[in-house]
Design goal:
mainly alpha, 50s Ribosomal Protein L19e, Chain O, domain 1, Non-ribosomal Peptide Synthetase Peptidyl Carrier Protein, Chain A, two-stranded antiparallel ribbon, 7 helices, rod-shaped
C-alpha cells in the first residue's frame, strides 16, 4: 500500500517537503482511502498526519573548534588568510620613513645638524609613531630654524 499521493497532498497542504510528512503507521489504511484534499485536511486535524520537526545544522563541530581555538590550537600560519606584516618589517618601514624625512629637513635647512642627530637617536629609540608624529614633535618643541 503506497501512500505517495496522500503524502504529496499533505505536504502541499502543510506547505512542507515530502520528507517532513509523518503518517501514523497504525492508521495507514485510513490514510490510504483518503483521496481528496478535504479528507487529508481532516486527517491532519485529527493528528493522523503530522509535520516532522525541521532538522537544523548541528553546531557541535563548531563548538569543538571554538574550544580548540581558545586553547590556542588551529591558529598557525596555514590557517590565516590575508597578508600579515611582521613587527620587524613594520619597524623597518617606519624607521626608513623617519630617517628620510629627517634627512630632507636637514638638507633643506629646516633643522640644524645637532637637532638632526638628536632626532635620529630618538627615532631609533622608537619615540615616533610616524612621520607626521615626528613633524608634530618638531613643532611642539620649536626645533625648526627661524627663516
Amino acid at each position: 500500500m503506497t501512500l505517495a499521493s496522500q503524502r504529496r497532498l499533505a505536504a502541499d497542504i502543510m506547505k512542507i517537503g515530502l520528507s517532513r510528512v509523518w503518517i501514523d503507521p497504525e492508521d495507514a489504511d485510513r490514510v490510504a482511502i483518503a483521496i481528496t484534499r478535504n479528507e487529508i485536511r481532516k486527517l491532519i486535524h485529527e493528528g493522523v498526519i503530522r509535520k516532522k520537526p525541521e532538522v537544523g545544522i548541528s553546531r557541535g563541530r563548531k563548538r569543538t573548534l571554538r574550544i580548540k581555538k581558545t586553547a590556542g590550537r588551529r591558529k598557525g600560519p596555514g590557517t590565516r588568510k590575508g597578508t600579515r606584516v611582521s613587527p620587524r618589517s613594520r619597524w623597518i618601514h617606519r624607521i626608513r620613513v623617519l630617517r628620510e624625512r629627517l634627512r630632507s629637513l636637514r638638507d633643506r635647512r629646516f633643522i640644524t645638524t645637532q637637532t638632526y642627530r638628536r632626532l635620529i637617536l630618538l627615532s631609533k629609540g622608537g619615540t615616533f609613531r610616524s612621520g607626521s608624529h615626528l613633524e608634530e614633535y618638531i613643532q611642539q618643541h620649536k626645533l625648526a630654524k627661524r627663516r
